[in-house]
């Protein structure tokens, strides 16, 4: 039976469960449930703290897991990233009192508060800097105001929490994070693993793409196919009307309106867009 780690709390928990549910797996009935056996799919889901998931997967106790890239790097375990899951996006940054520092080098010798000591230690070592790392559980932005640290290194999404604490970013982001699927480094993927990954990837593609159908004069077909190259290649079908063909292609949701404008300008008509419920590509 395949054993999968899923975040039980925090911002990654709900979208992770939704992704697995959309991929056809059994959902947990209540948030207190820590293990769910999906017998039909021969999978057991373990609901764990996202911070701990890389440890379970890196040591091979569980086969696959969902966590944040920042947490994976911080854990320094022997797990590797397999798939980006398209939610939980954030950046990881140093920050200090507004107007006080402009470069990460200026943090040398200072006290830096963080919940990601492994990530920060590795980053500082890579820059040849030494600083005292003050490890806190959360709400690290307040540590400067309370005199426990001179700067922080933390997750930033909108920057609102930093600003409210009178802090501003120092330097470029250390890391761009998002939710990822991980496996033990070097572990062989069984047919069961591959099936789960294909299902998840099917959901991710269905979320990002739509299906576009349109009719176009054959004379501009090549140009139209440049506009909608599809996922692999567009399907071209004959039309009764002479000199015209029908085209069907997958298009990125984010590009739908620009694509329809471009096709219309080329002479395409009858442009229809429909959602993709599920797919295997
Ligand atoms: N505001 C945020 N926006 C996007 N991702 C975030 C945000 N805060 C935390 N994360 C991501 O969530 C993961 C951290 O999980 P964590 O267990 O700390 O949960 P959390 O969402 O911070 O909830 P809580 O702090 O309430 O436990 C990391 O991968 C981190 O990048
Ligand atoms: O840039 P923003 O949109 O303000 O989001 C970033 C904040 O969100 C997270 O905090 P969370 O609410 O998880 O609390 P925590 O720090 O106690 O984990 C993170 O640790 C930052 O503090
Ligand atoms: Mg948090």
TrEMBL record:
GO molecular function: ATP binding; ATP phosphoribosyltransferase activity; magnesium ion binding
Cofactor(s) for this UniProt protein: Mg(2+)
Main location: cytoplasm
One GO-annotated biological process of the protein: L-histidine biosynthetic process
UniProt KW keywords: Amino-acid biosynthesis, ATP-binding, Cytoplasm, Glycosyltransferase, Histidine biosynthesis, Magnesium, Metal-binding, Nucleotide-binding, Transferase
Regulation of activity: Feedback inhibited by histidine.
Pathway: Amino-acid biosynthesis; L-histidine biosynthesis; L-histidine from 5-phospho-alpha-D-ribose 1-diphosphate: step 1/9
Reaction(s) this enzyme catalyzes, per UniProt: 1-(5-phospho-beta-D-ribosyl)-ATP + diphosphate = 5-phospho-alpha-D-ribose 1-diphosphate + ATP
The protein's Enzyme Commission number: 2.4.2.17
SUPFAM superfamilies, per the entry: GlnB-like, Periplasmic binding protein-like II
Annotated ranges, domain Histidine biosynthesis HisG C-terminal: 206-277
Subcellular location: Cytoplasm
Entry-linked HAMAP family: HisG_Long
Function text: Catalyzes the condensation of ATP and 5-phosphoribose 1-diphosphate to form N'-(5'-phosphoribosyl)-ATP (PR-ATP). Has a crucial role in the pathway because the rate of histidine biosynthesis seems to be controlled primarily by regulation of HisG enzymatic activity.
Similarity-based family: Belongs to the ATP phosphoribosyltransferase family. Long subfamily.
Name this polypeptide is given: ATP phosphoribosyltransferase
Gene name linked to the record: hisG
């Amino acid at each position: 039976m395949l054993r999968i780690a899923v975040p039980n709390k925090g911002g990654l928990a709900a979208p992770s469960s939704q992704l697995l549910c959309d991929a056809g797996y059994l959902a947990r009935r209540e948030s207190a449930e820590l293990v769910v056996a999906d017998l039909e799919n021969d999978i057991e889901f373990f609901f764990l703290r996202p911070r701990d998931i890389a440890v379970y997967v890196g040591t091979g106790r569980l086969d696959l897991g969902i966590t944040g890239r920042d947490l994976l790097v911080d854990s320094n375990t022997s797990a590797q990233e397999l798939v980006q899951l398209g939610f939980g996006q954030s950046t990881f940054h140093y920050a200090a009192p507004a107007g006080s520092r402009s470069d990460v080098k200026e943090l040398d010798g200072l006290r830096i508060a963080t919940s990601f000591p492994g990530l920060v230690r590795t980053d500082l070592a890579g820059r040849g800097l030494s600083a005292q790392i003050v490890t806190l559980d959360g709400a690290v932005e307040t540590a400067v105001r309370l005199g426990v640290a001179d700067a922080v290194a933390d997750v930033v999404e909108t920057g609102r929490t930093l600003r409210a604490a009178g802090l501003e970013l120092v330097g470029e982001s250390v890391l761009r994070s998002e939710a990822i699927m991980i496996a033990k480094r070097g572990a062989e993927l069984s047919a069961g693993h591959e099936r789960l990954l294909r299902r998840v990837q099917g959901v991710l593609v269905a979320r990002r793409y739509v299906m576009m159908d349109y009719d176009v004069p054959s004379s501009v077909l090549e140009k139209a196919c440049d506009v909608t190259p599809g996922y692999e290649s567009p399907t071209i079908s004959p039309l009764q009307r002479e000199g015209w063909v029908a085209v069907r292609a997958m298009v990125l949701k984010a590009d739908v309106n620009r694509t329809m404008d471009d096709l219309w300008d080329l002479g395409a008509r009858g442009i229809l867009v429909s959602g993709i419920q599920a797919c295997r590509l």
